[in-house]
């Protein structure tokens, strides 16, 4: 097991990455200062049958009394209606201010249960037990919780850091192939923006990671989370540095929105978006062609898409680009890399982006 702390002053918390950790959740929660007693254990319909029992047992052994809440799986559950259902169960279960919420699942469960924890009784302790690669390397850490509105994703939310993260990489062995690969896009992103050596190591270790060998998975999850922690520690509110985590996401979001949500998984769209950003980086930040090529080769090794979808240059794409949250004034704050392992922000307008991506 690897353990480190996210240093956020009074809100600092431990992160554990390893194997067999689901059975340790109760003990680790007590060590993190949580009170035993009534807690909510939230999961979804895919994760529940696989891991609910083990985590519930681990909690009971440590004198927690979990009420079990299983939601439908999928993005559709990230809704205010579902939050209300969680509140109902939490009221029924007589959770009080000493109670905690345990989120066992992917980013959907983490964001939803996290938002319920952030708001119920003005805030309950939250424990993230991510079971997807995206959850383990990205969504569990950093305090962003929330749900969707019919007008857009993640429009309703709150910052609420967990009190503990337990990432058991063994859970990743039951994850679907496509879901696992999309998580690799976020892993490669950390290397591209802040850790050149990680790209070297991924070039060597990716086959073992894709074979889901515990050791290399543990290594890469821990390294990714440490990078995210470093960024969040310096800029929790996303006023500056944290924006570099959006590498590949400006074009990625526009692809997701203009190709109809659901066509590409988020990580797949981000993979394409990272190659688009690499291309723009060559023009505007002096990224060498060989380095863009290395990134492409690595994404392809992870079986991720790297080419813009056919007929991407639509009005929908342009308006999705302009809608991007990161937009400031008439320009888009775009994340580029000037070399592998180093990111910078650069203002571009949507015409420049589209022109560059259209050029042969
Ligand atoms: N809060 C943040 O900072 C942040 C960051 C990135 C993404 N997100 C959010 O996360 C969500 C996406 O998360 P996700 O990619 O984890 O998707 P997800 O939670 O929908 O999980 C993907 C699928 O895998 C299943 N699953 C989960 N763990 C499994 C396991 N171990 N074995 C078998 N099946 C398993 C789920 O039931 C689901 O069907 C989005 O809503 C996104 O907005 C949030
Ligand atoms: Zn992402």
Separate helix tally: 13
Q: Within the CATH hierarchy, at the fold level, what is the topology of the largest domain? A: Dehydroquinate synthase-like, alpha domain
CATH class of the largest domain, named: Mainly Alpha
Beta-strand portion reads 15-25%
A few lines on this structure:
With 360 residues, the chain is of the alpha/beta class. It is built from 13 helices and 12 strands.
List keywords for this structure.
Dehydroquinate synthase-like, alpha domain, 13 helices, three-stranded antiparallel beta sheet, binds nicotinamide-adenine-dinucleotide, 2 domains, Rossmann fold, alpha/beta, binds zinc ion, 360 residues
Task: Note down, in words, how this protein is organized.
By secondary structure, the chain is α/β, with parallel strands linked by helices. The protein folds into 2 domains: 2-174, Rossmann fold, CATH 3.40.50; 177-358, Dehydroquinate synthase-like, alpha domain (Up-down Bundle), CATH 1.20.1090.10. 47% of the residues lie in helices and 21% in strands. The protein contains 13 helices and 12 strands. The protein has helices at 25-31, 47-61, 80-92, 107-119, 133-139, 177-194, 196-210, 214-234, 249-258, 266-284, 289-301, 315-323, 350-358; strands at 2-6, 13-18, 37-44, 64-71, 100-105, 125-130, 144-149, 152-159, 164-168, 327-328, 331-339, 342-348. A 7-stranded mixed sheet has the order 1-2-9-6-5-3-4, with helices on both faces. Strands 10-11-12 form a 3-stranded antiparallel sheet. β11 (331-339) and β12 (342-348) form a beta hairpin. α6 crosses α8, α6 runs parallel beside α10 (266-284) and α10 (266-284) packs antiparallel against α11. It is globular, with a radius of gyration of 20 Å. The termini are far apart. The chain binds nicotinamide-adenine-dinucleotide and zinc ion. Residues 186, 249, 266, 270 line the site of zinc ion.
């Amino acid at each position: 097991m690897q353990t480190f702390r996210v240093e956020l002053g009074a809100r600092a918390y431990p992160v554990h990455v390893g194997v067999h950790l689901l059975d340790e959740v109760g003990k680790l929660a007590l060590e993190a200062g949580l009170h035993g007693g009534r807690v909510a254990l939230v999961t979804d319909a895919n994760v529940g049958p696989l891991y609910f029992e083990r985590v519930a047992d681990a909690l009971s052994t440590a004198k927690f009394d979990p009420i079990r809440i299983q939601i439908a799986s999928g993005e559709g559950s990230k809704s205010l209606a579902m939050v209300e259902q969680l509140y109902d169960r939490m009221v029924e279960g007589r959770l009080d201010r000493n109670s905690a919420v345990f989120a066992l699942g992917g980013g959907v469960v983490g964001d939803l249960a996290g938002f319920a924890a952030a708001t119920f009784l003005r805030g309950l302790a939250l424990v993230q037990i991510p079971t997807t690669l995206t959850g383990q390397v990205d969504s569990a850490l950093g305090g962003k919780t929330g749900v969707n509105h019919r007008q857009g994703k993640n429009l309703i939310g709150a910052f609420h850091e967990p009190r503990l993260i337990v990432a058991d990489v063994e859970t990743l062995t039951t994850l679907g192939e496509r879901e696992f690969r999309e998580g690799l896009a976020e892993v490669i992103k950390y290397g591209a923006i802040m850790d050149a050596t990680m790209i070297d190591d991924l070039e060597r270790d990716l086959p073992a990671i894709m074979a889901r060998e515990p050791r290399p998975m543990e290594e890469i999850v821990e390294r990714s989370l440490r990078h995210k922690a470093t960024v969040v520690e310096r800029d929790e509110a996303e006023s500056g540095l944290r924006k570099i985590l959006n590498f590949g996401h400006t074009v990625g979001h526009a692809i997701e929105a203009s190709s109809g949500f659901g066509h590409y998984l988020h990580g797949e769209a981000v993979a394409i978006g990272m190659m688009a950003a690499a291309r723009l980086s060559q023009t505007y930040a002096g990224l060498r062609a060989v380095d863009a090529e290395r990134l492409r080769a690595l994404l392809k090794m992870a079986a991720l898409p790297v080419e813009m979808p056919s007929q991407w240059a639509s009005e929908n794409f342009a308006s999705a680009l302009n809608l991007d949250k990161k937009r400031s004034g008439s320009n888009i704050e775009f994340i580029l890399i000037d070399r592998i392992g180093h990111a910078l922000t650069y203002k571009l307008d949507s015409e420049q982006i589209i022109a560059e991506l259209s050029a042969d």
